[in-house]
Amino acid sequence: MNKNRIHQRSGFVRHFPERWRFIFLSLGVLWLAACKEAKVAPPIRGVAPEQGIPFLVDTPQVSLQSGLYQEIKPGGATHFNYSADNMIYGNGSNFTYAYVYIENKDSLLFTLKKGKPGENALEWDFTAFHKPTDSTITQIKLTPEIYSTALGAEYPQTPIRYDYWSKENILIGGEMTGLVENHKNVWMHPPREFLFKILQLNPFPFIQAPYEVGNTWEGELVIGSHWRDKRWRVWEKSVKNKFQYKITDQVIYQAAIGSLECFVVEATGKSELGVTRLKAWFNPSEGFVQLAYQNINGSELVLNRVW
Questions:
Q1: Does 112 lie in the same domain as 260?
Q2: pTM summary value
Q3: Which tens digits make up the pLDDT trace of 232-257?
Q4: Residue 167: which residues within 8 A CB-CB, separation 6 or more?
Q5: Among 6, 71, 182, 205, which has the minimal tally of Cβ within 10 Å of its Cβ?
C-alpha cells in the first residue's frame, strides 16, 4: 500500500480549443468569486501525509488525551459535530460482526434468558456454537449516529449503537457508546453488554498514525468493579489497565467483498488482574474487519465482519 497514494487529474483544459479554454477559465473565476461572496468553504478531500488515507482537509483540530487524539470543539461553539470528518464510521453506514467465544476448546455463543423475579435485567448463559436457540445472539451490528439522546449533545465522540441480533434476525438488545475517528487515529469502544462485558479488560480497537509497520503507542484505562463477573474475574476496587499497541504487519485479508489490504495491530493490556491481548485487522476504507481477543480468564473471543 503506497502511503503517498494521491490520484491527480491531468490538466484537461489545455486539450480544448482556445475559445473553450477561455469559457472554462471564465466560469472557474465566476465560481470562485461566488464561493467567496457566500463565504462557503466546502470540504476538500486530501491525503494525510502521516498515514496515506483520505480525510477532510478542514477537519477540526485534535489534542492528545491519555494517548488518544480527540477533536477539539471550537471556542464559543454551542454545538459541534464530532463525526463531520469521519471517512469510515459515518452517518448511514453500518458494520455487522459474527462472533465466537472459545474456552477449553469449546466454541460457544450466548443466549439471553429472563432475570430473577422482580428484576428487569436479562441474564445470559453460554450455548454451543452449533446449537443456537431463538434467544441466542449470533451477530452484532454497529451503527454510527449523528446524535444520541442517551449520550447527550456534549458527548465528545461519534455516538454508535450496538444491536444484538438472534439467528432469526430478531433484535433482542442493544447499547449506545462511542468511537473516535480523525486523521490521527481510529479508536472505538467494543460491545460491552452481556458476554461482551469481558472486553472492558482488553485493549480496545485502536490504530494511530503513522500507519506503518513498527509504529507503537500506548494508553491506559481505569476499570471499575461493576465490570466483574464470576465467569471471568471478580475484583472489589477499580484497577488501572495499561496498554501497549504496535502495528506488526501489513497483509492481504480475504473478505467476502474481496481482498483487502490491512494493517495488523497487536496490543497488550496489563493490570493487577492479569494480562489481556488484542490482534486487530484494519482496512483504511472498511475499518476493523477482524478482532481477536485473548481474555483475562484465558478464553478467546473473535469478531469477524460480515457483509
A1: yes
A2: 0.79
A3: 999 999 999 999 999 999 999 999 99
A4: 132, 134, 136, 138
A5: 6
